[in-house]
UniProtKB/TrEMBL annotation:
<feature type="binding site">
    <location>
        <begin position="192"/>
        <end position="195"/>
    </location>
    <ligand>
        <name>CoA</name>
    </ligand>
</feature>
<dbReference type="Pfam" id="PF16177">
    <property type="entry name" value="ACAS_N"/>
</dbReference>
<keyword id="KW-0007">Acetylation</keyword>
<feature type="binding site">
    <location>
        <position position="515"/>
    </location>
    <ligand>
        <name>ATP</name>
    </ligand>
</feature>
<feature type="binding site">
    <location>
        <begin position="387"/>
        <end position="389"/>
    </location>
    <ligand>
        <name>ATP</name>
    </ligand>
</feature>
<keyword id="KW-0436">Ligase</keyword>
<dbReference type="InterPro" id="IPR032387">
    <property type="entry name" value="ACAS_N"/>
</dbReference>
<dbReference type="GO" id="GO:0046872">
    <property type="term" value="F:metal ion binding"/>
</dbReference>
<dbReference type="GO" id="GO:0019427">
    <property type="term" value="P:acetyl-CoA biosynthetic process from acetate"/>
</dbReference>
<dbReference type="InterPro" id="IPR011904">
    <property type="entry name" value="Ac_CoA_lig"/>
</dbReference>
<feature type="domain" description="Acetyl-coenzyme A synthetase N-terminal">
    <location>
        <begin position="31"/>
        <end position="82"/>
    </location>
</feature>
<keyword id="KW-0547">Nucleotide-binding</keyword>
<feature type="binding site">
    <location>
        <position position="539"/>
    </location>
    <ligand>
        <name>Mg(2+)</name>
    </ligand>
</feature>
<feature type="domain" description="AMP-binding enzyme C-terminal">
    <location>
        <begin position="531"/>
        <end position="613"/>
    </location>
</feature>
<dbReference type="GO" id="GO:0005829">
    <property type="term" value="C:cytosol"/>
</dbReference>
<keyword id="KW-0460">Magnesium</keyword>
<protein>
    <recommendedName>
        <fullName>Acetyl-coenzyme A synthetase</fullName>
        <ecNumber>6.2.1.1</ecNumber>
    </recommendedName>
</protein>
Amino acid sequence: MSTTLSNLLHEVRRFEPPAELAAAANVGGAEYDTAARDRLGFWHRQALRLSWTQPWREILDWSNPPFAKWFVGGRLNVAYNCVDRHVAAGHGERVAIHWEGEPGDTRTITYADLLGEVSRAANALTALGVGQGDRVAIYLPMIPEAVVAMLACARIGATHSVVFGGFSAESLRSRVADAGAKLVITADGGYRRGKPSPLKATVDAAVADDTSVEHVVVVRRTGAEVDWTQGRDLWWHEVVDTASPEHEPESFDAEHPLFILYTSGTTGKPKGILHTSGGYLTQAAYTHDAVFDLKPETDVYWCTADIGWVTGHSYLVYGPLANGATQVMYEGTPDTPDRGRWWEVIERYGVTILYTAPTAVRTFMKWGSDIPARHDLSSLRVLGSVGEPINPEAWIWYRENIGGNRTPIVDTWWQTETGAIMISPLPGVTATKPGSAMDPLPGIAVDVVDRNGNPVGNGEGGRLVATEPWPSMARTIWGDDERFVRTYWSDLPGRYLTGDGAKRDQDGDLWLLGRIDDVMLVSGHNISTAEVESALVSHPRVAEAAVVGAADATTGQGIVAFVILRGDAARDESEGAALAGELRAHVATQIGAIAKPRQVIVVPELPKTRSGKIMRRLLRDVAENRPLGDVTTLQDSSVMDQISSGLSAGA
Ligand code: WT7
């Protein structure tokens, strides 16, 4: 990628950490050196944050790479660490979860309440014959029972597999089958955009045929009518509420499987990423403390991710609860009942730390800055971003309009496979650059390398790899060690291949460029989709952009850009052609003539997966005039129709 254009490297703005935050930060700059001098010693000390019933005899066993064992011989109970020990330390009355249902109903759950609920659920699961090593599928909306169910599994040594509540019956069926789940925990429904969504019916369809599933436990949330299979189906309130709130936690090996989480990827059968207990919890807890500067006594933390994604696992359940945090959990969408819902929640609970995704930030940009401006957001002190590159324009908008031009932004890079944050600024240490994830965290070793595995210099791009094992790394793909080795560890032996492109700027700071597959080859130049998108969004009229490379007889690939205009930009159809010309010229000035899109298409929406990632594959189908491929993982299935009808109307 040495010919990659360097638009992103032109960013010159720097934001120093606020002095007050820096002075009281959990982690100072010296930690980078300490950890680099003795990486294993550093992780040994981080593991001491947790409560173990038996100490480990070895920090890392890397004798059979890439199959790591961390904290060998150590034993702990993950749920005890997330709940009981805070109660034992006298914090039982601290709020663990301020839950907010979409229709406006609320629940306040203290750590003492959580202990009772998790214990009851653990007893109920045991009574249903679920034990150590069994798999439990969780298919729930964003309600407290989802957290309780995950922790109850952890408490009894069952391995959970959370399946996002928006997935279809077929996706659920294949995940249940792959994991061989014995039990499914679901609900009669959940609220999204003002409507109850049926979940139980999807489970019924998914487990209709011959499956490993013995029981389906159903939480009553919406009160909707559900079909019932006698003997198989049980109400949560009948089995859990009647169980004893006392449960003695057993301890499990540090490498005991904690959860499986399926990553859909763009092709092939979903991969069941396996995470284990001691190393995973250590890094989830450390990073949550260091990256968000969490002060459990005073902060109110809010991660907006769904528990169906790894962000929900590590930064809504395991990290924050291991750290004794007080957090907000919200069931619904940001535009219900109106587009100010999140800001209203922040104001009401006095949220101090917000962790969300660039796609949400760009949506709010599109809706206009007057909406957050109507709310008092002055409680916020740290803002986080995750999921895809955050372009400088969105970064600045987030800082100015949500962070009052005062809060640090931590752009956190990681993956389902890495289990926890790997690259991020530290809010009390790093002078940030909008759009850069900056540096690997203390104790983490990554590099940017060329095709042959040689490190690139500053100012160069290449493939992002991890060069040393880390505690929360995936241990394997469930049931397929060979695929684990082939997918992540074969191309460059000894190094973990992230699949992402990255660039180091002149200071050596890291800029993530998206998946390597998203790099375009135009007239022999490698151009990353992220760079062109970033240039487009820096134009005042563009809210969001997605760029793809389409086959081109002359240039190999031609750049096709799909753009959504900003809410406050006038929408005059006749002006479309002029605007397209203006945007092409804008990209040329921002990056260079070579990156000028062949075509700019104004669209009302972009096709996204349910986790908010743009499905470039579908846009490539449009750009190359092909019938659309598989659209089943689309968040909103009508989007492609809207795009296609817009195209024919414009033609
Ligand atoms: C992929 C992993 C990490 C939890 C949510 C997504 C992209 C993630 C960033 C970031 C640029 C990012 C990468 C990565 N990604 N965070 N801060 N900057 N890109 O987990 O579904 O496993 O996706 O998301 O491409 O490989 P995931």
